[in-house]
Amino acid sequence: MSGRKKRGVLVLLLTAVIALLLSAAFAGRKALGSWRGVRTQLDAIEENTLVSRRLLNSFSFPSGTSPDSVVFDYDWLDGQFLIAHALGDTDGHTYTNSREALEQAYRDGIRLFEADFQILDGHVVLMHDARQFCESAGLDPTALDYDSFRSAKIFGTFSPLVLEDLLMFMSEHPDMILITDSKYSGGAESAFVLSSLVLEAEKLDPSVLDRVVVQIYNQNMLRQVMGIFPFRSVIYTLYISPDSDEQAIRFCLESGVGAVTAHVDRMSPELLDRLHAAGLYALVHPVSSAKDANDWMQRGADAVYSEFVTPDQLKAPG
Q: How far is CA 166 from the centre of its chain?
C-alpha cells in the first residue's frame, strides 16, 4: 500500500465512529457463531503501533467497516480438557509463565496453553504480576525494565518469555493452541498487546494466528479485538465482568462467541447447565487437583484451567 493510501486509510479510521454492529446470529449449534462487520487493517495497525512502541497513549485501533464476516469455531477443544494455566507449573512453582513451564506441560501432553501478557518498556512480555515476578527473580520492582526482565532467572532457575519467544515455540509446535490472558481489559494497552501479537506473528509465521484464542473480559472488548484481527475463537471470561449470568449468555448468543470461562466459585451447576442449554462451551478456572478436574469432567465442564493436572490423571467421564 502506498504512503498516500496508508494516510488516507488512517485518516478514515481515526475519523470514523469506533463502533461495530453486533449483527451476528447464533447458528443454533454448539461452538459456532459469526461476528460480522469486521475488517483487518494490518497496515494501519503497524503505522499506529510500530512507529514508536513507547507511545501507547497515541495508539488508535481500527474499527471494521467492510461486510466481511468471521465465523467463530471451537474445534480446538475437541479431545482436549486441560488448559495449562499461566503455561503450567514447574517444580511446584506457579504463575511463572516460563519457558520451562511451557516445555514441561507440552511434554506432559497438554496442547492448550493460557499465558499472561503485560507491557514493559513498550514490549509485550509474559508476566502475571510485576511485584510477584520481581520477588521470584530477586529484582527491585521500581527498577524493572525490559533488559532486566529478559536476563532474569525466576527462582534462580527458570527463563522468562517475551512475545517473540512464545510465537517461535508455537511455530515449532503446530499443535499448540494459545489462549491470551492480557492483563488489560480494554483501551490502548489491550490493543497494543493484541496488535503486537498479530504483527510479530505476521513476520515470523502467520499460520500461528489460526491457533490464537483471545479472552475478553467485558462486552465492549469484543469490538476492539475483532477490529484488530479476525481471530477464529474468542472466550468470554467472567472473572472481572460486570455481567450477570443471563447478560453474559445473551451477549454470547447475540455476538456469536461460543465459550464462557467462569471461576470455580461462580460456575455453579445451574450456570453450567444454562451454558450448555444455550449451546455454549463451559470452561472453569482455576482447578488445582486431579480430583477436582475429574469432578468437573463428570459434571460436564468442557475444559478446566490448571497448573498441576496432567492428561494421564484424567478419567474418562462415566
A: 13
